[in-house]
């Protein structure tokens, strides 16, 4: 049985596609770049082969000002532009009642993650929270998952990771953690869990 369920944030727990696309375009505006189509941004967010700094900001690496501008927009607008997917709150409460440890591993910056979870009223349910700037490398590197395992003193075979894209799947594989792919977020997959109720059935056999 699993002791720990780790969740991706954007596209898995929360629908944040509007604020992410708008924040990226806000950074582009500060860089005097033309806006990208929001749907195009969301399609590319989970691409593990994408050089995100080059694609989104036309630079060879992310800079502190990019984070500052992204967070500026995110902090100002996230309460209007994010929501929990239907059934997620109940799923988390159900897992907690079964004695399962809960964690978040997200490529969002820690500040944005905390603001979102607090706004949605679910920060306190998690036993560990790891954002992009808490580790040396974001997903698809396994660093976030390793950090959570170490912090909670859980072995990889006792954990399961739930996410909506190939970056999540690769991180889980590299960390030696079982993975569940969900299909209600930013990605469209042929073989994936289609609903929160279906995910609950999968997890009932694991946690």
Topology, element by element:
Elements (H helix, E strand, L loop, with lengths): L3 E4 L6 E2 L1 H14 L7 H8 L6 H6 L6 H18 L1 E2 L3 H10 L3 E5 L4 H11 L7 E3 L12 H10 L6 E5 L2 H10 L2 E4 L14 H9 L3
Parallel strand pairs: 1-4, 1-6, 4-5, 6-7
Antiparallel strand pairs: 2-3
Structure overview:
With 207 residues, this protein is α/β, with parallel strands linked by helices. It folds into 2 domains: 4-15 and 83-204, 3-Layer(aba) Sandwich (Rossmann fold), CATH 3.40.50; 17-81, DNA polymerase, domain 1 (Orthogonal Bundle), CATH 1.10.150. It is built from 9 helices and 7 strands. The protein has helices spanning 17-30, 38-45, 52-57, 64-81, 88-97, 110-120, 143-152, 166-175, 196-204, and strands at 4-7, 14-15, 83-84, 101-105, 128-130, 159-163, 178-181. The strands form 2 sheets. A 5-stranded parallel beta sheet has the order 5-4-1-6-7, with helices on both faces. The protein has a two-stranded antiparallel ribbon with strand order 2-3. Helix 1 (17-30) packs across helix 2. The longest helix is centred in the middle third of the chain and has 18 residues, at 64-81. The N and C termini lie close together (5 Å).
